[in-house]
Amino acid sequence: MRRLLLALPFALLPLAVAHAHDDHDHAHGTLAAHEHGVAKLNAVLDGNTLELELDSPAMNLVGFEHMASSEADKAKVAAVRQQLEQPLKLFGLAAAAGCKEDQQALESPLFGDAAKADDDADEHEKGHVHSDINGHYQLTCTAPEKLAQIDLAPFYKAFPATQKINVQLIGPNGQKGVETSPAKAVVAF
Q1: pLDDT (tens digit, 9 = 90+) per residue, 130-178?
Q2: Phi and psi (nearest 5°) for 85?
Q3: Over pLDDT 70: what percentage of the chain?
Q4: In what order do the strands lie in the sheet with 132-141?
């Protein structure tokens, strides 16, 4: 996968974080890298390749952040993973653009991936364990010029605990950062 494309949206990240942080007082006194109800999506359209990179607290998607131990929790994690494995059902793209999925990668401690350099004792001292779910999708579009927008309404419907998605978008018309909500879920390229 071409990670170079995904490095570009981070040039806009300080603007998006400052904008997204206006109404949240994070208990740890740092910028809210992990904020319940808020997800991040980087979208890059380069030629006929569309790359999407999703970063969301697990709370938004499965309703908890602890390791699944009960059968009900394990079933919920499996169901969410299955939903995330179908990006064309979560991210509304114009059918005329002819986008098909090439590659995907899903990562989360809840999926059995190693936890990111967080110390368990430190997490327990804070009283809350943070787990994220990350998805990276690469799609090829036969008519990328017909890809004028991404509709996030299906994502919001699938995961109603998600209240806001901060989108970093790079496409033929340049780059921009957009804050979406269930009521304002369409992002134009």
Answers
A1: 799 999 999 999 999 999 999 999 999 999 999 999 999 999 889 999 9
A2: -75, 0
A3: 74
A4: 99-107, 132-141, 49-57, 38-46, 164-171, 174-180
- Helix H, strand E, coil C: the string for the chain is CCHHHHHHHHHCHHHHHHHHHHHCCCCCCCCCCCCCCEEEEEEEEECCEEEEEEEEEHHHHHCCCCCCCCHHHHHHHHHHHHHHCCHHHHCECCHHHCEEEEEEEEECHHHCCCCCCCCHHHHHHHCCCCCEEEEEEEEEECCHHHCCEEECHHHHHHCCCCCEEEEEEEECCEEEEEEEECCECEEEC
Ramachandran class of 29: left when φ > 0, alpha when ψ lies in -120 to 50, beta otherwise: left
The mean per-residue pLDDT over the stretch 7-32 comes to: 39
What does pTM read for this prediction?
A: 0.78
**pLDDT tens profile 30-48:** 334 678 999 999 999 999 9
CA distance 18 to 136: 24
